Amino acid sequence: MNEIFPLTPAMWQEYARDEASISAGEIWELYREFELAIFSRIDKINLTEKKKQVLQIRSIFHRQLSVALANSSATLLAYKSWEVEQGAVLDVESSNLDGISSNVASAYQKALEMCNARPHVEEQISRQDLSHSEKFQQYMIYLKYEQSSEDPGRVQLLYERAITDFPVSTICILIDSPLHVGNVVRDVYSRATKNCPWVGELWVRSLLSLEHGRVSEEEISTVGLIVTIHSELNQFS
Q: What separation in angstroms does the CA of 16 have from each of 21, 125, 140, 177, 233?
């Protein structure tokens, strides 16, 4: 696992502050610049298309402000400046939310809180003075926090890290995570049954996930055969 995720705890802290925020932020910036470029090329007399593009750009701003990213305040100021260009009356020198619609302001505040909270929870799981069980509990707190963000990618990444320190414990609880998306859940169960082959319920859920995923009969039969072998050897708990 360390070959896949070789970062030290300190490096993970740095990663939590920068990785998703910076790279995702750059993507949002490029997306917005692209739509702004389209807007600038629309003929001034084509009011219908102009209005349509304004709505598109506003939607991008709103969506970006609802995501926990670095430099969110800069995005807010850019958004306010852009709205002023559209005729709104806003204070473009301040990061206050006066004049911003309540739903956008609420989403922005929530994203800002999440962005500021991650370094703290990263610090907790990186502490060297924690016992094995205490560190595991901190991982569970962090996982619960990430699950509340409803971002399966971040949840999966954190589980991968937890598996490095707690291979059996983490995989046994992994089946209850909100990762039931596409091939992700299949990979989760595949690894879970390899690491905890004695847990019968894992095999049951693995087979159910394969059926729900509409995989080939051959793949289901292969897993079923393995289950039968384990059952005959009385290896299930």
A: 8, 12, 17, 20, 45
Residues 24/67, Cβ–Cβ less than 8 Å: yes
Residue-wise pLDDT for 47-77, tens only, equals 999 999 999 999 999 999 998 887 889 999 9
**Relative orientation angle of helices 183-195 and 200-212, to the nearest 10 degrees:** 160
Cα atoms found within 13 Å of the Cα of residue 147, Cβ hemisphere only: 13
Q: Read off the pLDDT of residues 130-172 as tens digits, 9 standing for 90 and up.
A: 898 898 888 888 888 887 776 777 777 787 777 767 766 665 5
Tell me whether residue 86 is exposed, middle or buried, using C-beta atoms within 10 angstroms of its C-beta: 0 to 12, 13 to 18, 19 or more. exposed
For the chain, domain boundaries:
9-113, 180-237
Phi-psi region of 100 (alpha: psi -120 to 50; beta: other; left: phi over 0): beta
